[in-house]
Amino acid sequence: MAWTKIIGPEEAQGELSDVYDHVKSRKISRFPEFLAVYTQEPGILRWLVDTFSRPGANYGVTAIDPTLVELIVVAVSAANQCHNCVVIHGELLHRLTGDEALVQQVATDFRKASLEPRVKAALEYAVKLTLDPTHMTKQDIHSLSEAGYTDRQIVDIAHVAAWFSYVNRIAEGLGTELRQ
After folding, report:
1. Half-sphere exposure of residue 168, counting CA atoms within 13 Å on the CB side?
2. For the chain, what is the largest distance between any 2 Cα atoms, rounded to a whole number of angstroms?
3. How far apart are the C-alpha atoms of 7 and 123, rounded to whole Å?
4. Cβ distance 164 to 85 under 8 Å?
5. C-alpha to C-alpha distance for 165 and 170, rounded to whole angstroms
6. Residue 30 in this model has a pLDDT that exceeds 60
7. Is the pTM here over 0.85, yes or no?
8. Are 96 and 77 spatial neighbours (Cβ–Cβ below 8 Å)?
9. Is the pLDDT of residue 85 over 90?
10. Is 154 found in the same domain as 70?
11. 85: closest CA among 179, 4, 3, 167?
12. CATH code assigned at 117
């Protein structure tokens, strides 16, 4: 259970009650504890639900495919040592690829995984942005361009890496747990 109180729909009032009604109208039966901690900040919760919970939302990106997105999420979450996110997104990656060995390789050391050089370039960039953002250079972008990524795809790669660095910190910083 998260270390901060999660306000359930039965005790929600005002703006939070409206958010729960909104969530129900979107046919979302429940959301992960990572989102539930935002019952303390209903405006952020509404934004998160609207932005990331619609079918095909793919965390807001449109230029890279869902498999690359989840590869980035697992690599970034592993780099941040966010076990819950590695497990949740490892399951999503497994559904997309059907390859449990690949999921395990990316979760432990993506550099040893059987991935195309182009994909490894994206993961190298994402993990560097995660662990050492002050040392990013134009060469990092150039490497992605050389690997065949467009500027739009590079922005999407950076967005997913940065977003999940944030998600990992909220999950770890507020003690969220996996649902059983």
Report:
1. 24
2. 54
3. 37
4. yes
5. 9
6. yes
7. yes
8. no
9. yes
10. yes
11. 167
12. 1.20.1290.10
Determine contact, residues 126/147, Cβ cutoff 8 Å: no
Contact (CB, 8 A) for 69 and 58? yes
Q: How far is CA 60 from its chain centroid?
A: 11
For the chain, the domain total comes to: 2
165 and 108 co-located in one domain? yes
- 143, two tokens: 């490497």
Q: Distance between the two ends of the chain, CA-based, in angstroms?
A: 11
Question: CB neighbours of 143 closer than 8 A, spacing ≥ 6?
Answer: 121, 124, 125
Give how far Cα 142 sits from Cα of 13, 76, 77, Å.
Answer: 50, 21, 24
Tokens of 34: 């990572």
- What residue type is 151 in one-letter code? D
Q: Is the pLDDT of residue 179 over 70?
A: no
pLDDT at residue 108 tops 80: yes
